[in-house]
Amino acid sequence: MKRHQLTFVLCSVFLAPVTALAQTPRPDTSLTANPVFQKNCAKCHGKTAKGHRFGGPSLISPKTTGTSADKLHEIIANGKGHIPKFHMPKFGGKLTSQEIDMLVQQIRTPTAK
């Protein structure tokens, strides 16, 4: 292998875990501080997760926080609704199962508000 190819491979091997850890929030991170939430959810649900009038509903309401973990995971992964401007898109192909699980945990945790 050429020297620059070997350097690239070695850097990739050592930096990949660091990059993955940098994007994975700690379990005690709040929903609104989670970079996955900010990048994928805040546009519709608001930066504070309180929802938008003509966008996504509040993620901190008792109705949402009381929804089962399985149901929340299903909604995030598969989407909900069919009206183009008023539906929850599916994120199953965009987010990992671990990212979805973290969002679900943070939505269901009262301190995640």
Structure description:
This protein is mainly α and 113 residues long. The chain has a single domain, classed as Cytochrome c-like domain (Cytochrome Bc1 Complex, Chain D, domain 2, Orthogonal Bundle), CATH 1.10.760. It has six helices and no strands. Helix 5 crosses helix 6.
Percent in helix: 40-55%
CATH topology: Cytochrome Bc1 Complex, Chain D, domain 2
Oligomer: single chain
CATH top level assignment: Mainly Alpha
Largest sheet geometry: none
What is the number of E strands? Answer: 0
- Structurally, the number of domains stands at 1
What distance lies between the first and last C-alpha atoms, to the nearest angstrom? 52 Å
Rg computed from alpha carbons, rounded to a whole number of angstroms? 17 Å
CATH superfamily (homologous) name: Cytochrome c-like domain
Provide the β-strand percentage band. Answer: under 5%
List the helices and strands and how they pair.
Blueprint: H1 3-23, H2 35-40, H3 42-45, H4 62-65, H5 69-78, H6 97-108
Essential attributes:
Cytochrome Bc1 Complex, Chain D, domain 2; mainly alpha; 6 helices; globular; 113 residues; 50% helix
The gist of it:
By secondary structure, this protein is mainly α.
